[in-house]
Amino acid sequence: MDEKTIFDAIRETVAERTDANMDDIKMESTFRELGIDSLDTVELLMNLEDKLGVTIEVDKKLETVKDLVDFIAAL
Amino acid sequence: MLSGKVSVVTGASRGIGKAVALKLASLGSAVAVVYHGNSDKAEETVREITEKYSVKAISYKADVSSYEETKELARKIKEDFTRIDILVNNAGIVKDGLIAMMSEESFSSVIDTNLKGTFNMIRHTVPMMLRQKEGRIVNISSVSAIIGNPGQANYSASKAGIIGLTKSAAKELAAKNITVNAVAPGFIRTDMTENIGEDNPLVQMIPLKRFGKADEVADAVAFLATSSYITGEVLKVDGGIAM
Fold first, then answer.
1. Deepest of B36, B195, B203, B242, by most Cβ within 10 A of its Cβ?
2. ipTM > 0.85 for the complex
3. What is the third-level CATH fold of A3-73?
4. CA distance A46 to chain B (A)
């Protein structure tokens, strides 16, 4: 899957779950500053699984949007 | 009360698990009957559920101590029932022995089935509950976890571990409308306790002066599975042993 598809899906999902504006969600944004705590991450990943049709099993800490994009792109 | 709901009960071919499966079915829930050893007995549970309560029931063979098997199990149950509302982690084994002579295998296998098995099942069913934004988990611990029991270092450690697991999971999942509780049975008359007679001095330690019945544990499980404002609780069903 290409990075742009993943990045857009993440932006969309984060925007749906928080007050953040899609344009304000950058590659370097951290989930913490976007208002996503570690418990919310689980739901975020599940929404992404539904949206992208992949299974995401993360066993390491992902701090920024880029971390997650890279992780999914490598699947 | 549980019409339209789907319950998963591990170790449901006999004993407490079977009583729990029947109880939840009597309240209208469909039941996934998970077993490891005895397929005839599991089929008997399925038959009793469908004949008595006319709800859907299917048996599944799985070793709960296996991360991969439980992952596949959750997938199959989802395929057959489309959802999971209630998970009862009951599957458990005993390998009693004095600690000074206990083998590594005895310790590890009891921890793997009882404690890791509970984790494995929660791990693979919680994503479904999170998607549904609702779930009830009841883990079967033991009074042996609370007061200890000579000859059961492995078993009581595993069951005490379940209490910690229950409380952490309860705090993690509370905001997602998933409750996690434990039931701690005392001496219950099942195959697991068949070697302890009613004349055993242990019975004299029980304020109610008798063994409990599997049905009496099932009532407590059903209570927690239908409660919406109790989480992280350990409910003893022990005739008063651990007051």
1. B36
2. no
3. 1.10.1200
4. 8
